[in-house]
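[Discussion] Sanity-checking designs against the backbone

I'm trying to build intuition for which residues belong where. Below is a structure token string of 321 positions. I'd appreciate it if someone posts a full sequence so I can compare it with mine line by line.
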């Protein structure tokens, strides 16, 4: 960090690296020009002298092992009050449940026990079992009537909210048969983040979005270049800032979500040879071997000359005595 620039003039890239605010704003301008007219443009603001950038961040799935979705959503099933239970006759009403009745109630002697309606959070079983519970019959000593649930009337906005409650991975929603699966390699998703969020925070946000059961510590983010170069983002780095620094074009560099123990870094010196065919790589190896042999011959001749010079000098010292 330059001494003539105050700390507020810099934006952190990681705990040990930073960039001038003016340089980052210039890169941000180029980034937004590339995404002009699209939802991937980034906004920025300043809070107490600190530059904060926010917007959508594209992340590609690069997993090799299956992931597991959580068994239950955080949707709450509504408790039905006693007034919402109706019978075939106006005089048939169920009294409100009391804690002492422990989930059952009777209206009069001879009536059947009616189970208490509970929410999915109170039930240990999955949502599907609750939805498939058959309607219960209730009888009286002198008449019989059907216990029915009042039909749910939802507004269009509520129905839309329920449909959008859980995000899907390429159209995949949780069910008991496909709760464990591997997202298609290279498929893209996105999360809304800001420049103050670290790698671990972005990972946690992404996994929570799709209700992934696995721990964020089991995954890592990588920047994968078109050349094959692969760099792991450290926990202290800021993915959105890294995305801006690597440019807006995802054909040149993409951000991938990978397993922490399966992903590996590929340096630039190695990446430049990855796309060559095997015959070409074999020819490179042969040339390296030839160059190695030439260097060995040069070193051998050099040390032989030094050895001869030392022996001659020793002989001269002996003769001088």
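Best answer:
Here's mine. Compare freely.
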């Amino acid at each position: 960090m330059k001494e003539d620039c105050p700390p507020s003039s810099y934006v952190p890239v990681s705990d040990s690296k930073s960039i001038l605010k003016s340089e980052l704003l210039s890169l941000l301008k180029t980034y937004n020009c590339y995404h002009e007219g699209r939802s991937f443009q980034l906004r920025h603001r300043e809070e107490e002298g600190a530059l904060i950038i926010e917007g959508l961040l594209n992340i590609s799935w690069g997993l090799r092992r299956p992931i597991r979705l959580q068994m239950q959503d955080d949707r709450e099933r509504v408790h039905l009050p006693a007034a919402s239970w109706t019978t075939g006759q106006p005089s048939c009403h169920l009294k409100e449940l009391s804690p002492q009745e422990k989930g059952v109630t009777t209206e009069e002697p001879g009536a059947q026990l009616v189970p208490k309606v509970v929410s999915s959070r109170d039930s240990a079983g999955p949502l599907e079992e609750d939805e498939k519970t058959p309607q219960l019959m209730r009888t009286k000593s002198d008449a019989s009537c059907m216990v029915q649930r009042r039909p749910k009337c939802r507004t269009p906005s509520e129905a839309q909210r329920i449909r959008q409650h859980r995000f899907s991975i390429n159209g995949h929603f949780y069910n008991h048969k496909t709760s464990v699966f591997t997202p298609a390699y290279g498929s893209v998703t996105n999360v809304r983040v800001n420049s103050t969020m670290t790698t671990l925070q972005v990972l946690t946000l992404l996994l929570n979005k799709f209700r992934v059961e696995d721990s964020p510590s089991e995954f890592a983010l990588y920047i994968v270049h078109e050349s094959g170069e692969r760099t792991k983002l450290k926990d202290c780095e800021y993915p959105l800032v890294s995305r801006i620094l690597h440019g807006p074009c995802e054909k040149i560099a993409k951000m991938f979500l990978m397993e922490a123990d399966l992903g590996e870094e590929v340096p630039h010196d190695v990446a430049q040879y990855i796309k060559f065919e095997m015959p070409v790589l074999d020819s490179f190896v042969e040339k390296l071997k030839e160059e190695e042999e030439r260097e060995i011959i040069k070193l051998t001749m050099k040390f032989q000359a030094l050895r001869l010079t030392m022996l001659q000098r020793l002989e001269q010292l002996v003769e001088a005595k």
